[in-house]
Amino acid sequence: MSTEIENKLIIISSPSGAGKTTLCKLLIKKMKNITLSISYTSRNKRLNETNGKDYYFVSKKKFENLKKKNFFIETATNFKNLYGSPIKNITLSKKYKKHVLFDIDWKGARKIRKKYKQNEIIDFFILPPSKSELKRRLVKRGRDNNKEINLRLSYAIDEMKHYNEYKYVLINEKVQNTVKEIKRIIEYHELIIAQKKFLKTKLKKIINS
Ligand code: 5GP
Predict the structure, then answer these.
(1) Average pLDDT by consecutive 10-residue portion of the chain (209 residues)?
(2) Domain 9-180 classification at class level
């Protein structure tokens, strides 16, 4: 019987504007056994963002230096900005026996899949209900200018083509429902882990009796 890895790497990817950031924040509020991996980025901080909470905002030079020192599990370039997930987030989550949640793109997800075992990863791709809804959400959040919105929209169409690389694909119509669905899937994986653990101890007893 294969051993299950208890602390999972949970990846949530989606095109910009599909509601992924809100979703991740709601999920960690609902599931206390998950920590969010805070990424580093060279992009400028937006008005509603906090350094150390949303991202660690660093210069391109600092980012490149960290990358050279193997500080990141994976890095990617989006909209001419650099993004990366620190390795220490995985080490810490294992130490504290928690799952770690990555809010990263498909490029980062691919790199993590190459470095970790398949049964260590639970990955989700979140789709917006439609292209027009995606545009509406990008405009509504009021973070980006028109040029930026159109750029993000065209990237979004390309990104969506990668949905089939993920174990779970969800359509984010109502964020509360999507969070519930993600929670249920994670709990299903936890149930399997618990069941296997239970069975292992039972089997030992049966064999040794
Ligand atoms: P935004 O600038 O809108 O916060 O993020 C742009 C894109 O970069 C999103 O798809 C987001 O998931 C992705 N992203 C954020 N952090 C990371 C990271 O550490 N690694 C990778 N590969 N992508 C990231």
Answers:
(1) 77 86 93 96 92 96 98 94 95 91 96 94 94 83 76 87 96 95 96 90 85
(2) alpha beta
Ligand 1 midpoint to CA 107 (Å) = 10
* Residues in contact with ligand 1 (CB, 6 Å cut-off): 16, 39, 43, 74, 76, 78, 83-85, 103-105, 107-108
Mention every residue, 6+ apart, whose C-beta is less than 8 A from residue 38: 52, 53, 54, 55, 56, 86, 89
Q: Classify 111 in phi/psi space as left (phi over 0), alpha (psi -120 to 50) or beta.
A: alpha
Structure tokens at 47: 């008005």
For residue 177, the model assigns a pLDDT of: 97
Domain residue spans of the chain? 9-180
Predicted model pTM: 0.91
What does the chain come to in residues? 209
Q: What pLDDT, on a 0 to 100 scale, did the predictor assign at position 142?
A: 65
Query: According to the model, what pLDDT value does residue 144 have?
Result: 67
Pairing label, strands 40-41, 81-86: antiparallel
Looking up tokens 């905002």, which residue turns up? 57
Burial of 157 (0-12, 13-18, 19+ CB in 10 A): exposed
Q: What are phi and psi of 34, to 5 degrees?
A: -125, 135
